[in-house]
Amino acid sequence: MQExxxxxxxxxxxxxxxxxxxxxxxIKIEALWxxxxxxxxxxxxxxxxxxxAVLLVNTGLKRWLxxxxxxxxELMVVYTMLCLSSAMAGHDLIQVxxxxxxxxxxxxxxxxxxxxxxxxxxxxxxxxxxxxAVKAFYEKGLSLxxxxxxxxxxxxxLSWTAFFTLLFFVLLCINVFVRKQWMENExxxxxxxxxxxxxxxxxxxxxxxxxFWAGFGAAGAITLLNGLNYLWPSVPGIxxxxxxxxxxxxxxxxxxxxxTPLNFYPCVLGLSFFMPVxxxxxxxxxxxxxxxxxxxxxxxxxxxxxxRLYANYEAGGxxxxxALIALWxxxxxxxxxLGQILAAGGGAGAVLPAEESGEPMSYRTAACGxxxxxxxxxxxxxxxxxxxxxxxxxxxxxxxFATAITRMRAAAGPPAHDLHFTGPENILADTVGSQNLxxxxxxxxxxxxxxNRAYRGQPMAHSIEGFxxxxxxxxxxxxxxxxxxxxxxAGTAVAFWAILHITYEKELGxxxxxxxxxxxWRLDGWLRHPSSSSVGVPLLLAAGAGFVILLEWxxxxxxxxxxxxxxxxxxxxxxxxxxxxSVVVAWFIKTIVIRYGGSRGFDRASAFFAGLVIGDFxxxxxxxxxxxxxxxxxxxxxx
Length: 639
Description:
Layout: H1 9-32, H2 45-64, H3 72-89, H4 94-100, H5 103-107, H6 114-118, H7 131-139, H8 147-185, H9 194-201, H10 204-207, H11 210-231, E1 241-244, E2 261-263, H12 266-272, H13 277-300, H14 310-329, H15 331-342, H16 363-384, H17 388-411, H18 424-432, H19 439-448, H20 459-473, H21 477-505, H22 510-528, H23 536-557, H24 565-571, H25 574-630
Antiparallel strand pairs: 1-2
Helix pairs in contact: 1-3, 1-21, 2-3, 2-25, 3-20, 3-21, 4-22, 7-8, 8-16, 8-17, 8-20, 8-21, 11-25, 12-25, 13-24, 13-25, 14-17, 14-23, 14-24, 15-16, 16-17, 17-20, 19-22, 20-21, 23-24
């Protein structure tokens, strides 16, 4: 057995011991202080910072106490488990869900009439209604560890932890079906974790290059200076947030471009350099095409006739199309997978066929996992109040979004992605019409908003990247699968503990308060002002999907076409607003490097841009850690 294949208890213990600190770190800076949001960027800087610290300690152990040092496979397990636990504790999951479970019982009043309007539809076993727990959450007084508080949270936390563990298991099983196709047949690059893979398995390729240290030093110096400037304005800083171009637009219809920040982020510049050139071009090109569409619609006065989030639905259709395109490209592989599933034999003690020997689990087990797991999820939703047919539609859309994001990251590596306010519950409510849905259905939609507000920390993407890192380190895929499942299960429970501990013991962050209000305002609107069914949303989804499919078809017919379908799908997003200037710079530099330096020039330059990522993350992570000791938010590298 190779060194990278061995997973010892010490690695698992290290990951589990780091999880509580990591969850508190993420929740304090994201939800409490709003000072840096590591889980809203593709590569979590809190985990990379932790990995670098572990690597430094591990280097010392290799020299002085070699038996205690972790091997590459174990380091990949620690990294992946922390990524998954960060995703669960992140800005788009437990931070959103937790206040949803308690807010209406605090905010209900005779003025809004919420108790009469929808309380009877809320599932008791998923909510926290205890007056003592509710009052202490918002006004303080009782500790989390007081019996009236922890007992009120126990059943909901256990129920949601089981739900998310099961949901992630289904996503894991889907990854099993596409893992070989993406890693071995198509040989996708997985750009998001390219730097992590090199740092763990081949550190000399970076640390022995002066360009790496030049990038590391440049990004680290910028972040250090800006952090000092944040504390003491007399210290000169290097401005990265320059302007909002919206302020310089004369008036209607041009004001329809909306918020257009001119910001630069060293880490985003570094990550973007590893993206394909055509995707870099497409991201900023389509970003401005979306702006142009908004201006034209405003000029023609069409906005009142369109759904409020019309551009989001177009982008959502693009996401669905990317998932379908990925499945179509894998059709030969999936046909072989189906043959293995339907083949005779395959009992518990049977030897796996050669096609499945390197997989995390057998295809038959994965198929059963998707089927049985989906039925259990639909049953969970049905008990909560969601009709079966809506539950089926909901999870199919969710799987499509998760698969699309996972494919985007595996193939192209965008630094950020989100798809705000376009979850399955929004699509179904706007399509079917809230007047045609029951109060219990709309209340379950409100609860499910807790993991569908946006998709910046989608755990399925981190799972496939974990399999890629395990393969690079020589770790068995089956070992990584079980560690991932443990990471999500334990990570969810720890995330609940961290946010409740911080909220009850310290203070309620403004973001948490807002996350509680946001979905119930929507629910109030659905119930008081019910809408009829509409074909507008399906047409917008179809338009976005059709355009992405057209772009993919054109790419197969015209070599060198610079328009990438993924660029269209992700360019209309909150994240792209922040990163488009860095993407433009990365596109320009990479185009020049490849044109005049070829693959050798790219290889040399990549060390500098990897240094930008690691330098920004290490210095930014240090400021973030310092904020924990300072008891307040300090300088944040993102966003």
